[in-house]
Amino acid sequence: MKKRTWILVLLVLLGVITFLDRINISVAGESMMRDLHLSEKEWGWIMSIFTLSYGLMQLPMGALGDKRGHRSILSLIVLWWSAFTFFTGMAGGFVSLLVIRFLFGVGEAGASPCSTGVVSRWFPKEEVGKAQGFIWAASRMGGALTPFIVIPIVAVDWRWAFYIMGIVGCLWVVLWYLFYRNDPKQMRGITEEELSEIPQLDVSAVESSRQKSEDAIPWRRMFTSVQFWLLLSMYFFYAFASWFFFTWFPIFMSKGRGFDQSELTYAIAVPFLMSMVGNIFGGYLTDKLTARYGLKVGRKAQGVGALVVSAIFMFLAAFIPGKMEVFIFLSLCFGVIDLMLPSAWALCIDIGKKYAGAVSGAMNTAGNLGGFVCATLFGYLVSSTGDYNLPLYCISGMLVISAVLFMCIDPTKE
Question: What is the pLDDT of residues 78-94, one digit of tens each?
């Protein structure tokens, strides 16, 4: 088996762990709100404060991985967030939980941009879509597994859900640091054939940049690029939908549509499984379309189509009453919307090249700022109106805006 396949396996495991750590608080939400005496508004801030720190640290973490190497940086950030996953179980109230989740987000911010940086250095361009598809599918698998793992633990004590996952993250770090190498040429046992397939980036220059006084990342060129800002804006509006599923979705299904605890496990798991399928299929599809029709069609047609169709499903989930109906429409929505995700993250490699980690970090920053607005606004809308459907109409509109912006991006412009 090729060395980059094993690297992908480790990144897939990281994707699962990342979302287990992230979604477990949503699944344990009702128990935590009751135990810590938190209101809907306070819970909205708990959900969004992670999104804020996670978003703000994406760009610096992605740039740090590009400059210092992903072996050490990814190890350090996973250790950091695993520690604060553990500390979440020790929270005693609103303020302590707010601080812990903010610091947890600082660590998790590096996962996606650093993973993208690894893919850009180890995978040929005809494989980056598939690699991104598997990584994001793994994250959704983590979301699907969360209710099966967390709900039984929560029935005993919600705090242990965080203690256990903190330990699991530390174990992953050991495997990663022992196996991974920043420079493919330094990987023990790698064949000349595989080396010839890997993009020949100047890894040594990246490694030595820590000794240079100038910044290796072309910030001015990046921040004056129209394509860069279109990418960020597109992801900002898309993230309203994804972060609904990451934060308020379990509580929406419980309080908004009346799912009881026994129904909630599958009501949460199935949409995440649909999302997983969407990511895997989307990764293969964007590579196939790109190979056949070029970058513009391969990336844009898939992304725009998925965003428009998911907007329709989100609208129908809000408009049509009933438990089974909302379950079907939201499952379809999450599956279709994540069909575009491998295209979006492959775009970061298309236009970012060896700075893909920094570009993807910036894109994810914009997305998490959108998620911060969504998670906070959701709580205030529900508190002031008592209507759980109103935020879904807003999210549907945001997806339409995202589709229009995706259409304007040109992946051939570096």
Answer: 999 899 999 998 888 89
